[in-house]
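Why run this: before we spend reagent on co-expression, it is cheaper to look at a predicted model of the complex and decide which construct boundaries make sense. The entries below are exactly what would go into the expression plan.
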Amino acid sequence: MPTSPSEQPVPPVPPEYDLAIVGAGPAGLAAAVTAADLGMSVVVLDAAAAPGGQYYRHPAPGLGAARPEALHHGWAVFADLVRRLDRHIGTGRVRHLVNHHVWTVERGGSTAWTAHAVTGPDGPGQGRAAVTSRALLLATGSYERQLPFPGWTLPGVVGAGGAQAMLKSGLVLPGRRIVVAGSGPLLLAVAGSLAAAGATVPAVVEAAGYAGYAKNPRTLAANPGKLLEGAVHGAALLRHGLRPRTRSAVTEAHGTDRVEAVTVSRLDRDWRPVPGTGRRIACDALAVGHGLVPQLELATGLGCATHRTPDGTYALVLDDRQRTSVPGVWAAGEAGGVGGAQLALTEGELAALTIAAVSRSAGRPDARRAVALRRTRSRLRAFAAVMAAAHRPGPGWPGWLSDDTDVCRCEEVSAGEVRAAVADLGAHDARTVKLFTRAGMGWCQGRMCGPAVDCLAGAGTDPGADSSADACTDAGAGPDRRPLSCPVPLAALSEPAALPGRAGLPAITEEP
Amino acid sequence: MARNPVELAGATPGPSFEITMDGRAVPVLPGQSIAAALWSAGILAWRTTRVNGRPRGAFCGIGSCFDCLATVNGAPNQRACLVPARPGDLVTTQEGHGRADLAV
Ligand code: FES
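The model came back. Tokens follow.
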């Protein structure tokens, strides 16, 4: 029985848009223009001030960059997508809501979704918005996976992707002499662009070997484009005199108030440092990262099923039409497993075609195009799986940690505390470790320490597990669940959300 | 070969302006975030941690790690990597949870 006006039943209102897309990276953009081409009304919600996502992040207009393509691969593809997007924005068929951080999506009846967003950067002046749609496409991308080591919290130690993002958007470097380390193909791209932008890169350090790729000659042969891309990065590095050191890792960063040097050690097959192999390299910054983690909060909040990918991260279960396990919800790009921009573009377009096929307001999608996209998708997915397996962290990496290394950056929880929770208190999964130690309970909600804590917790499940290849990757019971996908100020929650409405219509400001 | 990122991107930014970091003037190119401006000035740390008082600055660069929290114009806990710098912004090193003013 209603006890306050806010609990009065609200008469059903038809959704404002045929399709809401969360994320304006390669997947979201490809989907938006494809759906709009077919006559659907589309809203794109994105946290950034300009389209592109992390991959196509580019300098703010005020920086007057005449050659943004110098920071990118595939700039022409992006420029074309933006031209098409702008045309649809002009006709009112696409609405692009910038600076909108979507923090939750809620089901509105059987056929509609409401995406709730916080607007603007942190600080005073943040607002709130909500849009409703018939179909929902999650193109939420990924963030970087970090594995801790002594000294990784020193200023000057930055994410490899983070250094890349700051370079692309703000035209800045974290230092002059930057070591690049971690694992995965992103490192080569990062090292290449830092060097091109004037940094000295004394070493590129890759924990895996490249031999893993060669085990899958068929998949490689089916992906000449991907090989070419690797060769281009490789050639760019050679131009700067850089040759990656494989099977090696930064096992310590040195300095008191900022990084001054790193120790690079050889690794055995399991990523355990080989004693006596440490070499010190002077530097004033370290760009480090161990692959990417799909960003799934919105999807898992809606109950979408996940699976574990060959590199140990969780991704959404998707069918060959980009459908999640929840009817009415699609996903494309890294959320379905990290696979790069070309795959994201393919999946975004494919998702839009299949959404259009079931939409009342869309024209008939080209069936032959969908078949071709599905073929490209499975080829690129196969390559992504080879890549993921090749760079999957070895079970010996906790050998980099000393007991006083902070694992959780936010709550300053050390490896020793986590190990004690596992060994003495019997915590066998990340959730229990979190309750005992507060690891993962800080501002970032475990985004930085989650993979590491998972692994340390898993190592405790059986005494010999340290040497088992699955000690790290079988520990977690599922992907991290976070009730909110980004911070929401209480003040913003207490204000009514603005329902922006379609372009040209006045904003509706009401929400129960 | 480019000597710096601005040269690489062929950038001709609009006139720069200033913000201050703990009283020190820091030049900003229009469009840069607060974190980007601080990096350009060689400043890598602008907060100290709650438990051990250790220095921290930007880490992930995309808004997910919260290491770059700064106090901007008196308002604490703003992700400097996401907040665009505006002329005259007063950035101050943020200590701990940034709410010392609320302590009783
Ligand atoms: S650097 Fe990670 S949130 Fe700003």
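The longest strand of chain A covers residues 127-138. The pocket of FE2/S2 (inorganic) cluster is lined by residues B 58-61, 63-68, 79, 81 (CB under 6 Å). Bring this page to Monday's planning discussion.
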